[in-house]
């Protein structure tokens, strides 16, 4: 891992959503159990609900790949219905107002925004899920763009981040996330990578290759303030 002094101050920061900004389990786990209850009631799945850990361990993947891991014994029809149900139930959960960002997320984003840092989201999630989180937690005014695999049809986080950089003419940025897909997206696009080690969905091997690991989101502001200038 590189030392903090090697990080250059960026013009932009790109954030993963689940496990980075948003405490996914606060909306995901209730939706997950309702989803399988519904699949069984509709006759699309007959086995017990797979362990929660299987779902949590799949976060960061494209949705179509998640169901291959979570219910490999499920039919294509079950997988397609699960896609519909998950979005519906998560949006209902967000509307219920009981979901959580990680501590200091909003305050840290506000401080970075005030210092002129351009802020973006790049997530493998669905478009309405990402925008739902941003709207529910009143973050929209802080972001310069929300990029999701669901909206842009990209096949990898690498491609999604590349598109974001090109469309917004971003020359320097940090990729901030908690999964190996975030590290890969950052490195293959020649960005600094900040690995978020506080979510606990993956493991530290997932974050191998990050320039810095942080154990709380608020550390990001200090990193930015200490980063060497590009000039």
Automatic annotation (TrEMBL):
Domain of life of the native organism: Bacteria
Keywords: Hydrolase
GO CC terms, sorted: cytosol
Any one GO molecular-function label of the UniProt entry: phosphoglycolate phosphatase activity
UniProt cross-references to Pfam families, sorted A to Z: Hydrolase
InterPro entries: HAD-like_hydrolase_sf, HAD-like_sf, HAD_sf, PGP-like_dom2
GO annotation terms (biological process): DNA repair
Protein name: HAD hydrolase-like protein
Organism: Paenibacillus mangrovi
